[in-house]
Amino acid sequence: MPSSQVRREFWERVVRNQQESGLSGRAWCEANGVALASFYLWRKKLSAAAPAGGASGRRSSDVQWLSVEPAHAVGASASAPSGVTLRIGSVCVEIATGFDTRALSDVLTVLESRC
Fold first, then answer.
1. What predicted TM-score, i.e. pTM, was given to this entire model?
2. Contacts of residue 74, Cβ cutoff 8 Å, sequence gap at least 6
3. Are residues 30 and 73 both part of a single domain?
Protein backbone atom coordinates (compact mmCIF):
# COMPACT_ATOMS: atom_id res chain seq x y z
CA MET A 1 0.00 0.00 0.00
CA PRO A 2 1.46 3.43 -0.91
CA SER A 3 2.74 5.42 2.04
CA SER A 4 0.32 8.25 1.22
CA GLN A 5 -2.60 5.85 1.70
CA VAL A 6 -1.13 4.56 4.97
CA ARG A 7 -0.69 8.16 6.18
CA ARG A 8 -4.27 9.03 5.20
CA GLU A 9 -5.68 6.00 7.04
CA PHE A 10 -3.62 6.89 10.10
CA TRP A 11 -5.03 10.42 10.19
CA GLU A 12 -8.58 9.17 9.57
CA ARG A 13 -8.20 7.01 12.71
CA VAL A 14 -6.70 9.91 14.66
CA VAL A 15 -9.55 12.27 13.72
CA ARG A 16 -12.19 9.61 14.44
CA ASN A 17 -10.63 8.78 17.83
CA GLN A 18 -10.56 12.45 18.81
CA GLN A 19 -14.20 12.93 17.82
CA GLU A 20 -15.29 9.82 19.71
CA SER A 21 -13.33 10.87 22.80
CA GLY A 22 -15.46 13.95 23.46
CA LEU A 23 -12.28 15.98 24.07
CA SER A 24 -11.42 19.13 22.18
CA GLY A 25 -8.83 18.72 19.44
CA ARG A 26 -6.23 20.49 21.57
CA ALA A 27 -6.88 18.37 24.68
CA TRP A 28 -6.89 15.11 22.72
CA CYS A 29 -3.66 15.96 20.90
CA GLU A 30 -1.93 16.92 24.15
CA ALA A 31 -3.08 13.70 25.82
CA ASN A 32 -1.98 11.54 22.87
CA GLY A 33 1.24 13.25 21.81
CA VAL A 34 -0.09 14.35 18.43
CA ALA A 35 1.13 17.59 16.84
CA LEU A 36 -1.80 20.01 17.01
CA ALA A 37 -1.00 21.79 13.73
CA SER A 38 -0.82 18.47 11.85
CA PHE A 39 -4.06 17.33 13.45
CA TYR A 40 -5.93 20.46 12.37
CA LEU A 41 -4.42 20.28 8.87
CA TRP A 42 -5.50 16.67 8.39
CA ARG A 43 -8.92 17.21 9.96
CA LYS A 44 -9.55 20.02 7.47
CA LYS A 45 -8.15 18.00 4.59
CA LEU A 46 -10.30 14.97 5.43
CA SER A 47 -13.49 16.98 5.98
CA ALA A 48 -13.01 18.74 2.62
CA ALA A 49 -12.63 15.38 0.87
CA ALA A 50 -15.48 13.67 2.76
CA PRO A 51 -18.77 12.86 1.04
CA ALA A 52 -22.00 14.51 2.24
CA GLY A 53 -22.33 13.83 5.95
CA GLY A 54 -18.74 14.86 6.63
CA ALA A 55 -15.69 13.04 7.90
CA SER A 56 -17.25 12.79 11.33
CA GLY A 57 -20.10 10.68 9.99
CA ARG A 58 -22.49 13.18 11.52
CA ARG A 59 -25.80 13.26 9.71
CA SER A 60 -27.95 16.35 9.42
CA SER A 61 -30.45 14.63 11.73
CA ASP A 62 -27.74 14.60 14.43
CA VAL A 63 -27.41 18.39 14.44
CA GLN A 64 -29.16 20.22 17.25
CA TRP A 65 -30.17 23.82 16.74
CA LEU A 66 -30.03 26.15 19.69
CA SER A 67 -32.08 29.26 20.19
CA VAL A 68 -30.25 32.57 20.39
CA GLU A 69 -32.15 35.37 22.04
CA PRO A 70 -31.37 39.04 22.61
CA ALA A 71 -30.23 39.60 26.20
CA HIS A 72 -33.31 41.70 27.01
CA ALA A 73 -35.54 38.72 26.13
CA VAL A 74 -34.01 36.53 28.84
CA GLY A 75 -34.36 38.84 31.80
CA ALA A 76 -31.78 41.59 31.40
CA SER A 77 -32.93 45.10 32.12
CA ALA A 78 -34.07 47.24 29.20
CA SER A 79 -31.18 49.63 29.82
CA ALA A 80 -28.52 46.91 29.60
CA PRO A 81 -26.24 46.98 26.56
CA SER A 82 -27.39 44.72 23.77
CA GLY A 83 -25.80 41.30 23.58
CA VAL A 84 -26.54 37.65 23.09
CA THR A 85 -27.19 34.84 25.55
CA LEU A 86 -26.27 31.32 24.48
CA ARG A 87 -27.89 28.45 26.34
CA ILE A 88 -26.32 25.04 25.85
CA GLY A 89 -28.01 22.53 28.09
CA SER A 90 -27.68 23.92 31.60
CA VAL A 91 -24.89 26.29 30.57
CA CYS A 92 -25.71 29.94 29.95
CA VAL A 93 -23.16 32.26 28.34
CA GLU A 94 -24.00 35.96 28.19
CA ILE A 95 -22.06 37.88 25.55
CA ALA A 96 -22.20 41.65 25.85
CA THR A 97 -21.50 44.12 23.09
CA GLY A 98 -17.77 44.79 22.91
CA PHE A 99 -16.87 41.35 24.31
CA ASP A 100 -13.30 40.01 24.35
CA THR A 101 -13.13 37.58 21.41
CA ARG A 102 -10.18 35.68 22.87
CA ALA A 103 -12.02 35.09 26.15
CA LEU A 104 -15.09 33.87 24.24
CA SER A 105 -12.90 31.54 22.20
CA ASP A 106 -11.41 30.11 25.42
CA VAL A 107 -14.88 29.60 26.92
CA LEU A 108 -16.16 27.87 23.79
CA THR A 109 -13.09 25.61 23.70
CA VAL A 110 -13.82 24.47 27.26
CA LEU A 111 -17.51 23.96 26.48
CA GLU A 112 -16.66 22.01 23.31
CA SER A 113 -14.70 19.51 25.37
CA ARG A 114 -17.64 18.99 27.74
CA CYS A 115 -20.68 19.09 25.45
1. 0.44
2. 85
3. no
